[in-house]
Amino acid sequence: MTPTPPLEQNGPRRTGAVPRKRIGDLIIALVAVASLAILGAMIDTLRTAYNDVELRAEREAHSLLEASVSHLESQLALWDLSLKLAADIFHRDRFATLNADDRILLLSNLATNVSFIGSLLVLDRQGNISLDPMSPVRRTGNFSDRDYFLAPQQADVGTFISQPYRSRLRNHDPSIALSRRITGPDGGFDGVVMIAVRLASIRAMFDDLDPGQRGAIAVINAAGRVLMRHPSLDGSGDVDLDLSASPNFRRMLAEQTGSFSARAVTDGTQRLYVFTTVPRTDLLVSVGLAENEVFSGWYRRVYITIAVIVAMCAVALLISLRLRAELARREAAETQLAKLARTDPLTGLANRRVFEEFAERELRRSRRTDRPLSMILIDADHFKAVNDRYGHAVGDTILQLLATVMTRHLGRPGDLGVRFGGEEFIALLADTGAAGAAIVADRIRQGFETATSQTPNLDAPVTVSIGVAELTARMADVPDLVAAADRALYRAKASGRNRVMRDEETAGPPEAHEGGRREA
């Protein structure tokens, strides 16, 4: 039968108790999980806030777009109406009774009362100026090469909006022209009436709209040429800037209306674009809000939230780490106290308290299983004299050396080495008879003598006397077994010391109490 191991010298474990270090680990794990949960909630909240900011920005951009289109559409309608009226004044029968001066006066009043008109001209079928009501001095010029003349010449296209150009009559002022065909009595082409609009005037329509410092409102024709940009990159409205190759413009042209986020080719700014076409024209109006401005408040919120959450989590983690360290320290201190309560502080062997518990348990097991139990009682010879001669430090070293030799020869789980008191040591050997215990005892004796002979501080080796006793039916309890071993120890000392003696009651033939491999 396998012998029962001795009680742990560090003290008995509390049944079902969780080590405090594990509690500390659990606290750290809970803090980590809570931190992750808070982080997840924070991310979800910030994502919701981001969507809200994006939605508000898109609504703001749509409001700017609607205002921009409304401004431009109403002004285009007014210019278109002015063109139609000018064409009627020039050609309709009901104005036939008017002489040339009256027609010029009427056209001049019309032009001056419509905002943003730079010139109003009537061109004959060759493209020459036939009427110039807005100039006090009649100007001359031929504009047969302009698209606002060529397009109506080919067909009646209604009101035609030209490409941007620099005016020959107004010091190369950037302009666009709106023109209409004049049809003669025979139904043929009889010239055009045109209104020249300064692009700076168009940009002035949008001065009261604010897309932000990095935002932009732009009017672009179908050819990809900019009629106006507010605010301007070049200070003049970026007139005639060619965006025909821009992916953003191509997308706007293809979709006609919508929204998207993209980086501008002009200045590299990431913007949220909303765009649409002006009804009954080929003009696109786009509003782009710079995302770094739109989300600046959200970014600040992100930074502050992250800083607060990280700080809170760091503090919680630091506290949990300190708590874990404190729990581990307390557990180590308690373990050390328990160990000190059950071990001899000088030798590290079990103390008398452990011996009494273990011996009682092994005695009951030996009775129950009818297996032998032996005790070795060891006493250092003349230890007081050695201690007085060499000092307590050397005496302590001798006792530690004896404990080391004992431990080396007590290698089975059922063996227990104990410092019984002073220079006395006890070894309990389960499943070992007196003969086997005597062999172990003699090995301890020889080993100790050899070890002390190699100790530099001693003039001569120190020896031990050992008594061996085996549990018998006549022994009622552990003190009886101790008394038997003590009698054997007394006989060893009386016989000259440095020897092993067995108790006479259990000192029969060795074969009567063989202890398995101890006697092998």
For the sheet with most strands, the description reads: 6 strands, antiparallel
Distance between the termini: 18 Å
Strand fraction band? 15-25%
Determine the structural class based on helices, strands and strand pairing.
alpha+beta
Helical content (DSSP H or I, runs of 4+): 40-55%
Order of helices and strands: HHEEHEEEEHEEHEEEHHHEHHEEHEHE
How many DSSP helices?
Answer: 12
Rounded mean pLDDT score: 83
Any idea what the shape is?
rod-shaped
Q: Any low-confidence stretches, pLDDT <50, length ≥5?
A: 1-16, 509-520
Q: Count the strands?
A: 16
What does this structure look like?
- With 520 residues, the protein is an alpha+beta fold.
- Helices cover 46% and strands 19% of the residues.
- The chain contains twelve helices and 16 strands.
- The chain has helices at residues 20-91, 100-112, 147-154, 199-204, 247-255, 291-294, 296-342, 352-369, 383-390, 392-409, 434-453, 478-494; strands at 117-123, 129-131, 160-161, 165-166, 174-183, 189-198, 216-220, 226-230, 258-263, 270-277, 284-290, 373-380, 415-421, 424-430, 464-470, 500-502.
- The strands form three sheets. Strands 1, 2, 3, 4, 5 and 6 form a six-stranded antiparallel β-sheet that branches. Strands 8-7-11-10-9 form a five-stranded antiparallel β-sheet, with helices on both faces. Strands 13-14-12-15-16 form a five-stranded mixed β-sheet, with helices on both faces.
- A hairpin with a 5-residue loop joins β7 (216-220) and β8 (226-230).
- α10 (392-409) packs across α11 (434-453).
- The chain crosses the membrane at residues 23-43, 302-321.
